Amino acid sequence: MNKHHYTMIETLALILNSKKIRFNRLTNVDDIQESKNYGKYDLSRFIYISCWTINEEESIPLWKMYTSDMKGVRITFSYDPFHMRKPNPSEMPGLNISVTDDTLSPIPLNQMMSDKYFIMPSFLMKEHFGKAVEYVDDVTGMYENAVDLKVNPDGTANMSIPSAGDLAIHKNKVWAFQEEYRYNLLAFPPPAGGFSTQNIPEISNAAINSIYRGLAPETEFIDVDICPKKLSCLTITLGPLCSFADELLVKALLEKYSPNSRLVKSKLSGQIRQRT
User: Fold this and answer.
1) Closest by Cα among 244, 247, 259 to 73
2) What are the φ/ψ torsions at residue 235 (nearest 5 degrees)?
3) C-alpha dihedral, 61 to 63 to 67 to 70, nearest 10°
4) Rg of the chain in Å (alpha carbons)
5) pTM above 0.85, yes or no
6) What pLDDT was estimated at residue 124?
7) How large is the average pLDDT for residues 118-132?
8) Left (φ > 0), alpha (ψ -120 to 50) or beta: where does 19 sit?
9) Which of 117, 122, 147, 189 is positioned for an S-S bond with 41, CB 3.0–4.6 A?
């Protein structure tokens, strides 16, 4: 299944140069209601997402919403764009993660822990990383009970997030035209003093404390590696109102970073009047 992403030419340049896809915090998406669907323990600032569409036909609304005056590009990957690799538990001694022969991760274990965040490896439990958005009549309160957090009499606490891998995948039907496919990450601030083999058991406590106090990671985004093989065979569609100069710029970017990729013109070229 192809995944398409409408964006600016400048963003294409950053993606090609960094070889990464940026996940943005859920509180920054277009649909303001998405960050208001959680209950007492608000997870919206802990969720980072990358948004795509699976609609093979070009979308005038998506060109209009996510490119500059319909002069951007549509980036197309065949299947998922990420570099799926078997996790290496030795990268993080002391982290109790079960890895089987068919376990794949878009992020190496040692990159899940940084000085800015800890990424919960909930995607290791799923058959695929990513899921199509489900459009419903009313999304209000859909994730109100997403967090089960109980404070014990002795001051300790227990927490579980039963559907950690299935958060932020429902939207109201008014957004159905997007035919969206999402990749989600759940991230928490690192434990005090950073990560070490000795304090890995403190990760759970740090996550519980951050949700209880509403203290999300400071970073607004997380960058994830693109599969090198898939980056070498992109299809880039020029926006319907791209100029010849825009086309030259995109060609130069592909020649430098992905010479085997394909550049095509929009099927809507010449069909949309440019407003002045």
Assistant:
1) 247
2) -120, 125
3) -110
4) 20
5) yes
6) 61
7) 76
8) left
9) 147
Question: Distance between the two ends of the chain, CA-based, in angstroms?
Answer: 38
Hey, what are 145's tokens?
Answer: 């009970």
Residue with tokens 């960058």: 223
The CA distance from 267 to 270, in Å, is 9
Q: pLDDT tens digits for 219-235?
A: 999 999 999 999 999 99
Whole-angstrom CA distances from 228 to 52, 196, 231, 263 are 19, 30, 5, 18
Looking at the chain, which runs of residues are DSSP E strands? Answer: 2-7, 20-25, 47-53, 73-78, 118-120, 131-132, 134-136, 148-151, 157-160, 170-172, 180-188, 221-225, 235-238, 262-265
Q: How far apart are CA 263 and CA 235, in angstroms?
A: 6
100 or 243, greater pLDDT: 243
